[in-house]
Amino acid sequence: MKKTLLLSLALLSFQSFATEKFNLTTDFSSISFATIKKQYVVEPATMSGLTGSLDEQGRFAVIAPVANIDTGVSVRNERLNSLFFNTTENPVIMVSGQFDLASLTQPISKMIVPAEVSFYGNKKTFNFPVIITKTANAIIVSSYAPVIITASDFAIPAVNLTKLAATVGGLALSDAVPVNINLVFKK
Predict the structure, then answer these.
(1) Contact 121, 88 (CB under 8 A)
(2) I want to staple 58 with a disulfide (CB 3.0 to 4.6 A). Which of 99, 115, 168, 174 is the partner?
(3) Quick check: 70 and 46 in contact, CB under 8 A?
(4) What's phi and psi for 91, nearest 5 deg?
């Protein structure tokens, strides 16, 4: 009886540990990118307010509210949201995927993590080169190289970029941006 009780408690304890998940820490997580105009003027931007989780199998899901773009210039934020991203109809970017969490035997690992990105009614998988730092209570995922994403990856209409360019005197704007991530998951 005692053995059965101890075995049951051990299994229950393991099961509750196995179903633990890590939640994204909003204050420490962000997506950053840079827009490019006139082929050489780089304007950085970040997207904050991310939410999400990571489970014990390495499955993750992150939601990024597009309206939280911050370029450091409020009028640029408004133009990106209304003219380019059309955030009233496309309010979030969803990112999901899985990596082998059990393979993280060292406190710091380098790997390529495939992630499906959903936006503007379209989905595309990108391979994110990341450094993953694992502690007892947190998993930190940070880019070691940017991923280049284009407007056409999500079928964002070219006219949206044209409208945005018109607000800055018709200057040429690139439809490609380098994207980096910094995600902090805590128990």
Answers:
(1) no
(2) 99
(3) yes
(4) -75, -20
Sorting pLDDT into bands at 50, 70 and 90, what band is 19? low
Residues facing 127 on adjacent strands: 114
What is the amino acid identity at position 185?
A: F
Vertex 123 angle, CA 133 and 176, to 5° = 75
**Whole-angstrom distance, CA of residue 13 vs CA of residue 17:** 6
143: nearest Cα among 180, 101, 97: 180
62-116 pLDDT, tens per residue? 999 999 999 999 999 999 999 999 999 999 999 999 999 888 989 999 999 999 9
167: DSSP letter? T
Beta strands per DSSP E along the chain: 21-24, 30-37, 41-47, 51-55, 59-65, 69-70, 92-98, 108-119, 122-134, 138-143, 147-150, 176-186
Q: Which of 187, 185, 136 is nearest to 24 (CA)?
A: 185
